[in-house]
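Morning. Coffee machine broken again, so started the prediction first thing and wrote up yesterday's gels while waiting. Chain of 174 residues, entered below exactly as on the submission form.
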Amino acid sequence: MKLSKNCMASLTLILLMGLTSTAHAGGIFYFGAGQADEENAQSSGDTPFVIGGLGFSQESKMVFGFDLAREGTMLDSTFGQDSLSQALSVNVLLGRNFYDNGTIRVDAAGILGIRETFADCPDSFLGFQCYADTAPSTEYDVNYGALLTVSFSRASLGVRITGESTQAVLGLKF
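Came back before lunch.
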């Protein structure tokens, strides 16, 4: 599966705009950072981080969202060398609200998405990433996990756990 960075950026913008549409009673915009899965013997050594959003309505207990994360490790065979780098994951979240008294809100969502695992292309002799400055071919794998958030008035705290990392998240409720 090949997705250009411009395509992923456009998709991200469209989905985040959808979270803030008037059809929803509110949402949470969140970001977080954490620690990589230590069982992975090969690691990029970079701190995993995430940015995303959850949307919800007053009529339903369902929550849904989208996030982008830098987590896990991918083998990057571009620029004429093999190196480990942090992978990009694109994820969809679906879950439900478990408690809401107007001041405190508790939501949980499952995470399902794709994560880069490998990038390769013919070597460039002029210092470009790939020969003739073509885009590298990228392979993807499944990304999965869960997100739990507790919101107070306008702030939100939570934890995001995937097969690649565990992250503390901070959010703004709107």
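The chain has one domain: 5-173. Going to sketch it on the whiteboard this afternoon.
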